[in-house]
Amino acid sequence: MRASDSILSLLSSIPTKDMLLIRITIAAIALIQLARAEEQPVSFSRDIKPILREKCVHCHNQKTLPGRVSFESAKKAFAKNQSGQSVIVPGDPDKSIIVIALESSRSHERSMPQTGQKPTTDQIQLIRQWIQQGADWPRGFRGWIKPTFRPGE
User: Fold this and answer.
1) How far apart are CA 131 and CA 137, in angstroms?
2) What single DSSP character describes residue 58?
3) Can the peptide bond before residue 113 be classed as cis, meaning omega within 30 degrees of 0?
4) What average pLDDT does this structure show over 104-109?
5) Residue 152 pLDDT greater than 90, yes or no
6) Quick check: 41 and 31 in contact, CB under 8 A?
7) What is the dihedral of CA 139, 141, 144, 150, to 10 degrees?
8) Beta pairing partners, 80
9) Rounded-to-integer distance, Cα 39 and Cα 24, Å
10) pLDDT over 70 at 25, yes or no
11) Confidence (pTM)
12) What is the CA radius of gyration of the chain?
């Protein structure tokens, strides 16, 4: 007898009333796990740094765009842009220029990145969530993103 047959046999022997309780318990456990997953803070090192490294910092660094927005470090990323707007507004993704640029259509003048593929919807959602949670960006070496220079850019 296979394990799946044994499980089916066991389940069929459980009274309907008890089966309902089991289903409710399983659903409650699933909801608790889902709530815990949503509460988990977004990690800069694990979640955000790889996106910025892959999609942003090859252009947005002090060598490529001196005096402009740079994602090499927290100090540079949290500075205001040339228009006096904050690129990242901790706690407010809707006022953060990075979110506005990433969510803009390619035809919009503020759309980013201007070259290469945009971050996925899930990656943009992670950035939104990270900013909503306060945009914790480690100082020092852990928070530094080394620009990667691509030929022709």
Assistant:
1) 10
2) T
3) yes
4) 68
5) no
6) no
7) 180
8) 86
9) 23
10) no
11) 0.69
12) 23
Structure tokens at 11: 């389940």
**DSSP letters along 1-22, please?**
--HHHHHHHHHHTS-HHHHHHH
Q: Are 39 and 114 in contact (CB under 8 A)?
A: no
Helices (H), ranges, 1-153: 3-12, 16-39, 49-55, 74-77, 97-103, 121-132
What are the tokens at 135?
């945009």
At 134, is the pLDDT very low, low, confident or very high (cuts 50, 70, 90)? Answer: very high
Report residue 101 as tokens.
């640029």
> Please, which contacts does 69-77 make with residues 24 or more away whose CB atoms are closer than 8 Å?
69/97, 71/145, 72/144, 72/145, 72/146, 72/147, 73/139, 73/143, 73/144, 73/145, 74/137, 74/138, 74/139, 74/143, 75/139, 77/137
Torsion angle of the four alpha carbons 148, 94, 45, 62, in this order, in degrees rounded to the nearest 10: 30
The SS3 call for residue 149 is coil
